[in-house]
Amino acid sequence: METERINPAYHKQDGYDTTNDKYPPDWNARSKAVRKRDDYICQDCGVKSGYHTPYGEGVTLDVHHITFLSDGGSNRFDNLTTLCVDCHNDRHEHDITEGRDVTTQTPSGPLVWFRQLVRYSLGSVGVLLLHTIALSLLVTQPTGEPLYFAGGGYIVLLTVAGVLRTKQTAILYALAGCIGMALMQVPFVVAIIPVSRVILVCSTWIPALLTGIWWWHQRK
């Protein structure tokens, strides 16, 4: 993360003069660092900046205060997130693009949708595999065994992922539940899964539901 010109004194609003500008003097460097941290990806819809991928060409990325400055929010990195202009507008009750020359249309088309579908499908298969292993460890291993705690560690990682990447986690686990439900119709698959098919499918949809609700709450 680029922090050479970022002044920690500007984390809070009382650390600089807000008479003429609500943003700190190091906002340019600070916002660049946030975009770089988030890999130039909108943290709500997942679109990537056009400067780094051909299918996202023309997309403007903003840096958003999760807790608004008007509500006492800070300029700390944990209160800043990267959003495309469309998603940024969704977070506010007014048009933030007024007077700005930006591209507010998220790229669309068959190629974009196909790439997103492939990415999420592959990711959900990996999530389902990891989830199945962790769940089987929790169910089949006695309490106190190292493998049991490995399964519990997965729950901790899932919680962290749900807080940091709510929308992506919700989509991946929802797809994992759908794929898991389809695979449960195959006798061979059912025979090698050490846990109940109902438990397996429901235990993926529950994180999907919870993180989806949390994402919807955060974007308000």
Characteristic key phrases:
mainly alpha, 220 residues
Summarize it.
The chain has 220 residues and is mostly helical.
Task: Count helical runs.
Answer: 7
Distance between the terminal alpha carbons, to the nearest Å? 28 Å
| Class computed from helices, strands and strand pairing | mainly alpha
Report the sheet with the most strands, covering strand number, pairing sense and barrel closure. Answer: 2 strands, antiparallel
Taken as a percent bin, the fraction of beta residues is: under 5%
Order of helices and strands: HEEHHHHHH
Which percent range fits the helix content? 40-55%
Number of separate strands: 2
What's the shape? Answer: elongated
Oligomerization = single chain
Radius of gyration over all CA atoms, rounded: 21 Å
Which blocks of ≥5 consecutive residues have pLDDT under 50?
Answer: 52-56, 104-109
Mean pLDDT: 80
Instruction: Provide the spatial order of strands within the biggest beta sheet.
Output: 1-2
